[in-house]
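Bug #77: duplicate submission created two jobs. Keeping one. Sequence:
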Amino acid sequence: MNALVPLPVLLPLCVTGLKLAIGPRLQRFQRFISLAVLGAVLVLSVLLMVAADRHGPLSVHLGDFAPPIGITLVADRLAGLMLTVSSAVTLLVNVYSLGQGMADRDDRTPVGVFHPAYLILVAGVSCTFLAGDLVNLYVGFEIMLVASFVLLTIGGTATRIRAGSTYVIISLFSSVLFLVAIAMTYAVAGTVNFAQLAVRLQEVPVGVRTLLEAMLLTVFAIKAAVFPLAAWLPDSYPTAPAPVTAVFAGLLTKVGVYSMLRTQTLLFPGHRLGDLLMLAALASMVIGILGAVAQTDLKRVLSFTLISHIGYMVFGIALAGRGSISGAIVYVAHHITVQTTLFLVAGLIERRDGTTELTRLGGLARAAPLLAVLFFVPAMNLAGIPPLSGFIGKLGLMRAGVDNGGGWAWALVAGSAATSLLTLYVMAKVWNLAFWRDAPPGAEHEGVVLESAEDEPDDDSDDSDDRDDGDDRVDGDDRVDSAGDDGDRIGGHGATPGPGTGLPVPAGAVVPAGFLGQSITTTKRLPWPMLAATGAAVSLGLLYTVLGGPLTTFTEAAAAELLARTPYIEAVLGR
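Kept job's structure:
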């Protein structure tokens, strides 16, 4: 079974090479192998999780080189659960992206880049979860950074390039800090292997150990978007295509949380920065949700709720007890799924109505009841309505806070309750504006980018239905040129419908636009793969509720294993 540990990393990388060799040809085959490899990674992740639960942590030294020289990969209960949840989510998002037809569509990127970059991202995430040392944890982060910059800037629009540049600058800063922390750790301990560090750091002077802990926490807090290091997130994620935004918001920030969990329990038991972490958790929860209250765009609302709910996970890490760690793990698994689902729903809304601005939406509960259900269920789950999985995670964290009994713990319990109520308020606000009320009079439906006006349809007609970007909106200042003579213009009003004209674009219509030479369209009938993938994500969130008992039992065992440290150390060092 140990031989399976590297495969979640190696499989996506090998298939990426194959896809790059194929290029933009054989679109059906490209889609098939993407789904096949992600499905295989999901199966492998489940096998590793079950094996780690039954037999303890699994480890492998690549090349049979023992630490500290060799590359060590380790799959314990925590890594197995994170791999399973992330693999399921990435598979569903890939199905969604195929339905949206965004892959390999941009005329400025002639070689298919979406799926290769996406698979590299999956490999980076898997490498991070399985890393048995700081260097490979860093490598996993850098693999994700390279892939994420490509995905964030798909389409090459000025907005995406600007947002992607901000993301990369912040990420590079954290990477440099991470490298400095790794160098300092090696200087004082002579190794970067987690199992060896767990032993040797206890002999390091307290001041030096605290400095290393602070540096690593800063790096991971930037990755996880913990306040006050989260200012980059609300402007970076919403500009990307819906599948990219969904997987980034749901998954990439949790990689930072996972790294905090791993290092705080294994390397710095009884950490001295607990009070600072509690303050950061409280600030993230409260300030993040207040930011969400002030927003009127759905994607920005979800971005701020993301920052807020990261605070719940840091809450559990800061208390450092078995109950709090278990609650944090439950909440990470829950939040990966629910946050991804909500961003997928936001993508569906944008594809249908051309905007996620709440002041311009309305009547969706009547016009698109299935879309309303797909939003309502994960929204209530995020708010923590009983008996959904969000409630299970929050209850575990708040119970751990009460059991702790300290002043900061009680403050976090109060902050958690207030944040949960404000989250419910925010979700109710979105529901009322976008779904429950009637559509505002005179609301325009801006089209979304479908295909380049200069492009001719490909010979492979079955592929053409899937080809649309689905997220790039035409800026309000862009003018829409005439589609032909006045009599041929849509609606016959003598003016071309589109942004800035006061006339809506009818569903399914394609008109030329002065937006990087691309055409725009609106589609009231959403592609079934997008709906199916979103529905499956909703069902996965509900599955956590149905399996709430076994899930909490598993996370309690994972928390006990993390705090004991001995099973991990023995699995790696063979003691």
